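User: 5-methyltetrahydropteroyltriglutamate--homocysteine S-methyltransferase, Gigaspora rosea:
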Amino acid sequence: MPVLSANLGFPRMGANRELKRQVEAYWSGKIDASALLKVAHDLRKNHWELQKNVLGLDVVPSNDFSFYDHVLDHAFTVGAIPMRYREVFIKTNDDLLPCALEGDFLSTYFAMARGFQQLPSDGSECPIVDLEAMEMKKWFDTNYHYIVPEFHPNQQFKLTSNKFLEEYKQAKSLGIETRPVLIGPVSFLLLGKTSPNSPADFEPIQLLEGLLPVYEEIIKHLAEAGACSIQIDEPCLVQDLSPKAAQSYHVAYSCLSAAAKKCAKPIKIHLTTYFGDIIPNLSLVLPNLPIDGLHIDLIRAPQQFETILNAAAKHPTLQLSIGVINGRNIWKADLSAAFETVKKAVAVLGADRVIIAPSCSLLHTPHSLDAEAGLNPEVKDWLAFSVEKIKEIVLLTKAANNGIDCIKDELEANQRSIQIRRTSPKTHNPTVQERLKCITRDMMHRRSTFDKRWVKQQEIFNLPRFPTTTIGSFPQTAEVRKARASFKRGEISQEKYNEFINDEIKKCIQLQEKNDIDVLVHGEFERTDMVEFFGEHLEGYIFTKNGWVQSYGSRCVKPPIIYGDVYRPKPMTVEVAKYAKSLTKKPLKGMLTGPVTMLQWSFVRDDQHHKLTTQQLALAIRDEVSDLETAGINVIQIDEPALREGLPLRHSEWKEYLNWSVDCFLLASCSVADTTQIHTHMCYSDFYDIIDAITRMDADVITIENSRSNLKFLRGESFTYPNEIGPGIYDIHSPRIPLHEEMEHRLEEMLKRLKRNSIWVNPDCGLKTRKWNEVDLALKNMTDVAKKFRSKNC
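Assistant: Predicted structure for 5-methyltetrahydropteroyltriglutamate--homocysteine S-methyltransferase:
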């Protein structure tokens, strides 16, 4: 048996974001469920045929498709549907639903993801049905967001969806044998949270025994359908595990292995890990788990190869899947170096026990380079998107099975590309390198402590208690996108485009003033994305036309590519901020993206430490901060939602990362006078465990996602923040309008934990995905609540 090529997951949206458009059409009522399901059916078909028939991949995944999120899909599959959604939508008690993503079940699914609100026809505020969305959180240290499963002590699991089976059968009907992908039972429970009112000592991992029978059913159904193997993802194996969680792996996989072997035709279990090093947990896996295959990430953790290879050698039937192609970045692989790793694995294990794969699912990389005709040819030659990565995997597999000479031409071309990138003057700028050497610790401190700054700022701004603001962006309507596209195509002039943007800014300022917001924003209508916009104004970046990746649900982002040293050639936001400020007498925030987020949400260069790239970004943002202040913008927000996202997965590595990442924020923000108020914003991660680092950022005001996670940030046992803070008072990722009562409740909860004179009132995040009528009503309700609390003399 030869070395095999495999993929762990393929991007879902389609080469041209077909799924995004059709999901949003379904949400807006333009198409029905059957039309949406047809689009999904065709996309899956196209992706399977591309991987198998066009690219020549041996092992193709199924059940990696999702309308919104694969963790939400899995919660649906095992029946972890909170009762509040069941009571509204699910009207059947069938043990196995025909497909949990049809009809009313599709409504349930999207209500869990986005919330659902049905208002009475008479226009009154009190809704007939009002469901908030489930919590959303970053998927490990990526910019992908997953829906957090909810568990309670009496949780009953039941096979509720056969999506995994129907998609396997669909591929099989095309003549394509796939390997279905499941989230492992231990990681699924560890990724979840306890429902409100659960006992303090309850942990989701305690539910493992009740969950495993559902996995046994899944294995049985797939085996009966003819599946040969299953990919079971256990990414939590790269994290620090509690003793209880560690013990659970043996319990879980003993059960699953027994179920697999009981099938008339035994089915193989391939355990998949990614995003890090499993060496600290290796003894849990080898020799103790009865699995048929193990996948390891050799991009994020190449140091684990030797140890795991030697351990695998002691298990004569175990297949080792080696992730030698980067599934999270877009740089072309060094095929010569990768082949040395493959060759070593084959020498130790034999060809029949080696699988070549990406480091993780290709969900995190764009579809293909085919649509990128406008890219700089030299830089384009350094890149590989999902399709190109599969080609690299297939090439390496061909070389492993037939000898390196069979890919001689491709290997020579690859090595030329690698060498050109390594020596290209495009990647190194002497001026930037010299400026890095001039960074001092003094550049990372404000001139005075917060208490002294606060007095000076209040003299200027005279803000009321519970001041209101928003996070930055306002609706990016079809008209905004159309005007931007017309400008980029040269169909309208710069002057006409500027007039359009200025009109949108004026409308935004007027709406905020109508709703009596205290600190205003300009709305960010000139920005496609909070990272892409700044990258377009910095040297060292390059941009794609179609390099989209999924961030959450239908939300796609087009990460810019940092290929060289970064610097700011001229101001980026000053003129727009000055214009917006001229429209109001109220304070107006200059809106910037912080250096850590610029790093995390870009495809970043892999030829130097991330710290150096972030310092370059920090210096560029520092220059912009200084220019905004000089222009009279005395409130400046520097968003860092990705600070927590970049935190290493193991606690032992936190200190180093937090030291340099917070230093870079300080480098970007500390050039200003005491009278300039620095804000920052963070969202959709667990922040209470790094509160000391957040405190060291010394922002005058931090706004932070709080409502979608149901005040979790405030519930840390030792929570304290010395400056001013605005925990989000409503969820902006849901189309529902927040009611006065729920926002009042959240503000009451904040008052139990925070100094009353330190609280700001604001949404969870930016408003770009919402509609104007939703924003208007939500902000009115929000300011009404703030005024009510001021009048109560809270």
